[in-house]
Design a protein that fits this description.
about 80% helix; 2 domains
Length: about 150
Amino acid sequence: MGLWEPGNLYSLRKQFPKKGKSVPLLDVFWSMLLMFLFIAWIWVLIGVLGDIFRSDDVSGISKAFWVLFIILVPWLGVLVYFIARGDSMADRSMQAAADADAATRSYIQDTAGSSPATELATLAELRDSGVLSDAEFATQKAKVLG
């Protein structure tokens, strides 16, 4: 006879009564604290492992030893890594943020294009230098101004 067959309904009601068991409030807080610490620990591990692979001043063998040390003895490995390379970890993080900011600014400037005033100034320079005739300048000016 299977678990969900009608004959087992009574035993299911015994196992799962309608009234829930009360859970002490301290147990709830303790569980929340442990969950927070677990998530923080995962965050630290990801940050340290990311920093290991991001650093250019460490060879591949050294990176492998750091990762192995962190996997075999996690708490001690992370602590030693913070002591040995913590200051350069902050420098690499700031450099990565600056590089990302520069790339974003460059992308925005490239895609935004130039303003009509800049294009008109360029056209005026080309006309003054003799590259464009007055008729070509007027045609291009009409295109820029729309």
